[in-house]
Design a protein that fits this description.
The chain is of the alpha+beta class. About 40% of the residues lie in helices and about 20% in strands. It is elongated, with a radius of gyration of 41 Å. It binds phenylalanine (PHE).
Length: about 350
């Protein structure tokens, strides 16, 4: 293919002149050295490497007589190498400068005081719940959960709580609209017993901490929203001795080396059922005017018992092979006792100064 070359590429051989070439190399090296940033260097590269006199010289070699080509080619090649090396050297230098600058500019002085405002504090109920749960987890039990909006069936029927049981009445239970929709705010964590037995196969060792609801007015000793922790064990050969052993361990982990005792009680879902007390960890029964236990020497903890056979049957567990025990305690009560919180309202109100006393400010 032949034809007139575009005017931008005149081939007069002048760019090949040794002096012209030296000058071009010199100009390129100067331009690269003077480029203070990547943008400047890019412009210099376009002007002196991609285009410019040296590139021009290379193109002019083709027009030379054959015997002059080798020598000119060598000169242009050397010039090109010098320009390219200078360019790459400058790229490296600029990169090194940039890295060094970033290290300084983006460095963080961790010793500078921040004036940071505290965000809040972990709520002591949450902390107590975790502490109680940890006692069980340390024994190898699993944590189980259930929904706070629970079916009436799980909350009552499956637990053998009959239709006419007083706990179902409007004054105790929050019913979810519509009232005949079969949903309640769970009144205890015991429905998690049913859920666990339905979804797991024995041996079952689960602990279920969580929120529960009852239609009580908020006062010094009551709150309509509170927390319980439920323990359930289903295995072969479990007896009341195991139940008492588990409660003993749990109470000791929370309150120190104190005795427990049980009194006969009634819950539809356990048979036999018991109320558990533990020895007052303040006076151990030695102080008639003890404010912790009212002088009785015992503090009431909560309900417990052997899982009613009816529950095992209802959840498909053979009651002739397996037996189990369960207990449930109030978290707020444990917190009140263990940490000397007098008024329930302090627990509920969510004042960060209250939470902060428990040492978990964040
Ligand atoms: N769910 C009972 C309550 O809320 C406590 C309990 C749990 C009793 C497990 C026996 C067994 O009072």
């Amino acid at each position: 293919m032949s034809g007139p070359r575009p005017p931008s590429l005149p081939v007069d051989g002048s760019a090949l002149e040794p002096r012209a070439l030296d000058a071009a190399v010199h100009a390129a090296l100067t331009a690269f050295a003077e480029a203070g940033d990547f943008e400047g260097l890019k412009a210099a590269r376009l002007a002196h490497l991609d285009k410019g006199p040296v590139a021009q010289a290379r193109r002019e070699i083709g027009a030379l007589a054959a015997e002059a080509k080798a020598e000119a080619g060598k000169r242009v090649g050397e010039a090109m190498d010098a320009v390219r090396a200078a360019y790459l050297g400058r790229v490296e230098a600029l990169e090194a400068e940039r890295d060094a600058r970033i290290l300084i500019e983006e460095g963080v002085d961790v010793t500078v005081p921040t004036g940071r405002r505290p965000l809040g504090a972990r709520h002591p109920v949450e902390l107590t719940m975790q502490r109680l749960t940890d006692v069980f987890v340390a024994m190898g039990w699993e944590v189980a959960e259930g929904p706070e909006v629970e079916s009436e069936w799980m909350n009552f029927d499956a637990l053998n709580i009959g239709k006419d049981h007083p706990a179902r009445q409007m004054q105790d239970t929050f019913f979810v609209d519509p009232p005949d929709g079969g949903l309640v705010l769970r009144t205890h964590t015991s429905p998690v017993q049913i859920r666990s037995m339905l979804t797991r196969t024995p041996p079952i060792y689960v602990v279920a901490p969580g929120k529960v609801f009852r239609t009580d007015d908020l006062d010094a000793t009551h709150t309509p929203v509170f927390h319980q922790i439920e323990a359930l064990a289903i295995d072969t050969g479990l007896t009341m001795a195991h139940l008492r052993g588990a409660i003993d361990h749990f109470v000791r982990a929370m309150f120190g080396d104190v005795k427990t005792r049980v009194r006969a009680s009634y819950f539809p879902f356990t048979e036999p059922s018991m109320e558990t007390d533990f020895q007052c960890f303040v006076c151990r029964g030695a102080d008639d005017s003890c404010r912790m236990c009212g002088g009785s020497g015992w503090i009431e903890l909560g309900g417990s018992g052997m899982v009613n056979r009816k529950l095992l049957i209802a959840t498909g567990i053979d009651p002739d092979i397996y037996s189990g025990f369960a207990f449930g305690f109030g978290i707020e009560r444990a917190l009140q006792l263990r940490n000397g919180v007098g008024d329930m309202r302090d627990i509920v109100e969510g004042d960060v100064r209250f939470s902060g006393q428990f040492g978990m400010a964040v």
